[in-house]
Amino acid sequence: MKLSRRDLLKTLTGAGAALLSFPEAMFPIPEDVAEAAETAEEWRKSPCRFCGVGCGVLVGLRQGKVVAVKGDPEAPVNRGLLCIKGYSLPKILYGSDRYRAPQLRQGNKFVEISWDQALDIMASKFKEAIEKHGPESIAMYFSGQTTIFEGYAVNKLMKAGIGSNNIESNARLCMASAVAGFYSTFGMDEPMGCYDDFELTDTFFVWGSNFAEMHPILYSRMVERKHQDPNVKIVSLQTYLNRSTDEPADIVAIFKPHTDLAIANAMAHVIVKEGLANDAFVQKCVVFKKGLTGIGYGVEDNFEYGGAAETNWKTYRPFADKAQTIDFEEYKKFLEPYTPEYAAKLCGVPADTIRQIARLLGDPKRKAVSCWTMGFNQHVRGTWINNLVYNLHLLTGKIAEPGNGPLSLTGQPSACGTSREVGVLAHALPGGKFVANPEHRQKAAHIWNVPVEKISPRPGYHAVEMFRALDRGDIKVIWINTTNPFQTLPNVGRYRRGARKGSERFVIVSEVYPSETARHADLILPSAMWVEKEGMVGNTERRTQHWFKMVNAPGQAKDDLWQIVELAKRLDLGRLFDYGEAPLHKALFEEYRQFGEGSGKDLAPYDVYAKVRGGLRWPVVEGRETRWRYREGFDPYVKKGDGVRFYGQPDGRAVIWARPYEPPAEQPDEQYPFWLTTGRVLEHWHTGTITRRVLELHRAVPFAPVWINPEDAGLLGIKAGNRVRIQSRRGEVITKVQLDGRNKVPKGVVFVPFFDENVLINLVTLDAYDPISKQPDYKKCAVRIEKV
Amino acid sequence: MIKPIIAIGCVLGVLFGSLVLLSGSARAEQVDPQQGSKRLPRVYEGAPPLIPHDAETRKGMCLACHEFGIAGAPITPHPTRNDFCIQCHVGQDLSVQTFPPIPFQEENRPK
Ligand code: SF4
C-alpha cells in the first residue's frame, strides 16, 4: 500500500473500513507531530517495531531512507499517538555500527566473509552435528520480535525438515506463564477481550506491571478514560512505587514480592464470603479443579515437573498437571484460610485494603478489567497466579463481554502473533497445536506434505534447559536470531561461559547491532530489520498487522527469512519453501492460515492484511474480526442460545483452580538481605541493542542504576550517586545508586533495569522457573548491597 | 471556575520555574545531567521536543509551566493531561556521548 501525503489525512475507505469498528477517539493527536517532516516524499503503513501494544505508524520515506514517522491516525490501537520509542523509529536503522557483512570468529577477532561462505559453514556445522549426534544436538532460538513469516518458516524447517523440536522463542522468558494460564483455565491461548475494553470499563486492576512505562499508549488510554469519567477507578498492585502508581491510580497496594498468590486468594475469599459471586454464571460456565502442589522450582538441570514418570517424552502433555475436579463447596473450604488478615500478614497490604479491592472487583454495578505483565508471568508460580486472577473474573462473571475481562498484556510485538500463534516453541505446532498430540502431528504433516513420522512427538528443550544443554554439551550448534540471550537469560554467567566452552559447540547469531550475544558468537549474520523487510506481527489483543519492505538493508545485511530459506537449501530441504512462481511471503502465510482455520484461530487472507491499516483481530470469520471471544453475538464460534461458551474446553466450561500460596525459590536472609527485582524503562527496548543507538534515548537513560530505599541506603551509609556492588550467590554487578525519581522501592527491595550491557544484572538473577510454564522468575532473588 | 485554576497554576509555575533555573542541584546529580540548552535537537524534524531540565521528579506537574508558558517555558500545543507527557517528551543528559563509546571491531572479545 502506498499513501501520498494527501491521501494520508483522508479517511480510510474501501475494504478496511467495512471490516473495522473503532472505539471513539479518546485522545488528540499532537499537531506538531501530525505536521511532521514535510520533507518525506511518501508515507506507508507499518506497526511500530517495538512493543506488544502494536501501535500503527506511518513511515515517511525520502530517497530510499526513513526520514520520519507519525502515529497512524487511523490505527485503532493508538489513534495517532506514539511513545518516544515509536518516535525514534527513523533512527533505529542508521546506527553507525550496523552489521553489514557476515563475520566469522577467528580466535578473539571476527573477520568478514561472504554470504556464501557463511551459509556453507553454517550448513556444514548443522550437517556434521546431525550426522554425529542426531537432530536433537542442534537448536534454534528465535524471538517474539521474529515476524510471522520468519517464525513459520523456521518452525517448518525445524519440525518438518530437520526433525527436531529444539526450537524456542525468547517469548518463553516473557509469556509462557500467560500461555499456560490460558490453556489450563480456558483450554485455549490468548485474551478473550481486547483494548476496546479500556473505553468500556469503569474499574481497572493493574497487577505487577509498570505499564505506564512498558505499555505507554495503552496506559494513556486508561488514564484518558479516567479523566473522561470520574466514576472510573484504578487499582494498582505493585511491588514498588513506579509511574503506574502515580496520580491517576485510586488505590495503590505495594505488596511483598511473590505474595500476589495470597492476595488473589484473599480477594476470592472476600468475594465468596460477601456473596459477590455470580452464582448463575458459575453454575453454567465454570468447573472447579485442584492440581499438584509442591511442584518445585526448576533450578536443577533436566528438572521435570510432576516427576519423570508424568512427563517423560512419551506421555508428555503440554502442561501436565494431576488435575482433580472438586466442587464449589470444596473450593470454598480451600479459600477458608485465605482471610484478608492472613494475606495481609504475608503481603504487607492492610487487610482492609484487600477487602476494598475485592469489593470493587465484586461490585455487581461495576465492570472490571485486570491487566498484568511480567510480575505475574516471571514468577515461579506464574501459571498459578494467572489462574488465580481468572478465578476472580470467573467467580464474578465479569469476563468475555464489553468492558469486562482479564487482559494479559504482552511485551513483544509478536510474542502472540509469532511465538504463540505460529508455535515457535519446543512443544507447539502452528495454530495452537501440539507436537505431543498425534492428531495435531497428522494435520501438520498433511499441510507440510511430509511423512508424519518426520515430526517428532518429543517436545524439545525449553529456553532455560536449551542453554543448560549447550553448557553441558548436549547441544552442539545453535542459531540465535533477533534476541540477546547472553544478556537476558537468568543466571546468565553460566550460559555465557557455556557458549564459549568450545569442543564442538558452534554459536550462530543473526543480529543488526553488536550485542552481548553477538560477542559470544562463532558466526555473526547481518540481518535486515523492521521496514527493511516485509513482515507481519500479532499484538496483545489478537491483532495481526502487515507491512511491506520500504527501504534496503545496509551493506549485505539480509532478511531473516532469506537466511532461513538459504540454510534450508543447503540442508537439501529447499523443497519445504518451493512454492513455484508464487510470492514467498504470501505463499507461506496462506499455508500457515490452514492450521488455524475452523478451530477458532481463523486468520484473514494475506491480501486483506496487506491492505488494512491497523490490522485485524482473530478469529476473522467471513471478513469480520472478533472483539470478544466466547460470547454469543460477538464470537462466531458461540452458537445462538449458548450465551457464554469457553469452547477451548471440551465441556465449554472454564476452570476455577484452587492454587495455594507457596514460597518462592529464594528469599532474602541474613547473608543476602534484599529482594532483587528487575525490569525495564520506557526509553529502552529490552537489552537496548537498538534503542541505545538512538542518541536521544541513550541520553534520556544512559545507564541502569539500582533503586534503593532511602532508609536502607541510610543504614548502609550510601548516598544517591554512590557506586555499589549488588551481589547474589551467582554473581555481582556494580552500578550507581538512585533513591527516587521514576521508581521508589520499599524497604528491603532493590530494582535494576536489565537494558544495560555494562550492568549485566542477569549475572545476579536466579534461573528458577515455573515448572508448568518453564518461564524463569526475574522478579525475585536474594542479594546484598555494599558500597565500593 | 477557571480563575482559581490559573492562580494555582501560576503559583506552581513560579515554583517550578525556579526549579528549572536551579537545575543542576543535588537532585539532578543522581544521573549527572549536564543541561543548559533550551532548544535541543529532536529525533527528527517534527518529533516531540525533548526536555532540557530534570523531568523525573516533576512528573505530573508539566502543565503548571507548559500550559501558559510560565517562566519562559514553551507552551504546549496539546495541553491535555499531565499524566503522560513523559511518554513522548523525555529528559536529556547532554554529557552523554553516542553509544557505543568504542567501535565494536576494536573491542576485546570474551575469552
Ligand atoms: S507503545 Fe509500544 S508500540 Fe506504541 S509506540 Fe511505544 S513502543 Fe511502539
Summarize the structure in words.
The complex is a heterodimer of chains A (788) and B (111). Chain A is an alpha/beta fold and 788 residues long. Chain A contains 30 helices and 29 strands. Chain A has 4 domains: 5-92, Phosphorylase Kinase, domain 1, CATH 3.30.200.210; 103-174 and 414-572, Rossmann fold (3-Layer(aba) Sandwich); 178-412 and 648-658, Dimethylsulfoxide Reductase, domain 2 (3-Layer(aba) Sandwich), CATH 3.40.228.10; 674-787, Barwin-like endoglucanases (Beta Barrel), CATH 2.40.40.20. Chain A is globular and about 70 Å long. Chain A starts with a helix and ends with a strand. By secondary structure, chain B is mostly helical. Chain B has one domain (2-97). Chain B is built from 2 helices and no strands. The longest helix of chain B is centred in the N-terminal third of the chain and has 20 residues, at 2-21. The termini of chain B are far apart. The chains are: A alpha/beta (788), B mainly alpha (111). At the A-B interface, helix 3, strand 3, helix 11 and helix 29 of A face loops of B. Bound molecules: iron/sulfur cluster. The site of iron/sulfur cluster (SF4) has 13 residues of chain A, from helix 4 and helix 11.
Low-pLDDT residue intervals, each spanning 5 or more residues of chain A: 1-36, 307-318
Number of strands of chain B: 0
**Helicity of chain A, in percent?**
25-40%
Instruction: Report the end-to-end length of chain B measured between terminal Cα atoms.
Output: 69 Å
Distance between the termini of chain A: 57 Å
Shape of chain B: globular
Biggest interface: chains and residue counts?
A: A-B, 68 and 46 residues
Strand portion of chain B: under 5%
How large, in whole angstroms, is the Cα Rg of chain B? Answer: 17 Å
At the fourth CATH level, what is the homologous superfamily of the largest domain in chain A? Dimethylsulfoxide Reductase, domain 2
- Taking strands numbered 1, 2, ... along the chain, how are they ordered across the largest sheet of chain A? 5-4-19-18-17-6-7
Count of helices of chain B? 2
Task: Classify the helix fraction of chain B into a percent range.
Answer: 10-25%
Low-confidence stretches of chain B: 1-37, 102-111
Helix-strand string of chain B: HH
